[in-house]
Amino acid sequence: MDNVTHTLVGLTLARTRLGRAGRGTTAALVLASSAPDIDIVTLAGGGSAYLHWHRGPTHGPLGIVGLGIVTAALVWLGRRLFDKRATDSPAPFVQLALVSMIGVLVHVLMDIPTSYGIRVLSPFSWHWYAEDWMPIVDIYLIAVLAAGLFFGRGSEAARRQNVKLALALMLVDYAVRGVAHHEAILLAPRAFGPTLPASCDGTRASSAPFEHWPLPPPAPPQDGAHRCLIELAAMPDFLSPFSWDLIAQTSNSYETFEVDLLDARYRQAPGRGEVLWRHTVRYPNVWTPAALEAARAPTANLFLGFSRFPLVRASVDSAGMATVRWTDMRFAAGRGGQPPAAAAARGRDGGIAASAGSLFAVTVRLGANGRVLGETFGR
């Protein structure tokens, strides 16, 4: 989630029993609620460093413990240096550390249900895990948390009542998006119609509790082989919890379709009304020998470890030089079939917009002999 949401959650937790452990717990919870996003400092090392560390160890078990202790130490030291005249009882360091670890843990738990995902087991495992329920910025979640804090400014009883209401509505928001995501997946066969092929043998089970990646690149269909479905996903919409961008990854393409759960057309029996699947947008995605060779380049390998749905484009000029470019379909789905370069700016994390010219695309150039001539993020 974005840092505004994480900060509001920290302030909300400070009005629960966690904030009654003594002076300093509010500051600890607010700082800890955004502490995992400290990995933004790796941007100083360029895009490669950022993608390598992004949502990695700071969102893993060592980060939960380590950032909790560091946050507690900062609050404890700041209290001793700048808060000497306070009369209320200060929270002991151990309590500050425990409260801070809870704040960091809540941050991690809120990031998992986003389609962006996190590497929750890093540094022991660098796989990404996600649940496609929430957008990076949920305006309804922000509104609920802000309202709870605003209307709970009065008495202690008002604070307790509004915190309980805000946390309850927060859970309702997650539940609604979770159920809506499930319904969107169920409507995918109706939306895609005959363009949706049968599942490939050996693909991941649809009952897996979390989506995870990276996975090996799809093998190009052999002569006479039938196209098959690798994975089906539904990406959340920024505005409506009932609007979803469906992505069907097949063995040689991506199919995208924007579905509205409130639209009665999706409830009609097949063969009646509008032929919805005709609005499906297809992006060819064939991993040519040049693409497989370019994927070995360090920058491409790093991007492919981050990208859940890498879309490849490869071209070879008259001299035999190949240009291979990847983008991430998570930031290009739906919206009338707009191309990845135009839609990549929709992806936001921690208040930073990543454009197709920066972190959501990578280009590798190969010589006629297959040697890497250049590799860079963007075009």
Q: How many DSSP E strands?
A: 12
Mean pLDDT metric? 86
- Continuous helix count: 10
Shape, per Cα inertia axes: flat
What is the total number of structural domains?
2
Query: Strand pairing plus helix content: what structural class?
Result: alpha+beta
**Could you tell me the strand content as a percent range?**
15-25%
Low-confidence stretches: 333-357
Distance between the termini: 28 Å
- Provide the gyration radius in Å: 23 Å
Question: Major sheet, described briefly?
Answer: 4 strands, antiparallel
Helix content: 25-40%
Oligomer: single chain
Question: Helix and strand succession?
Answer: HHHHHEHHEEEEEHHEEHEEEE
Give, in spatial order, the strands making up the sheet with the most strands: 3-4-5-6
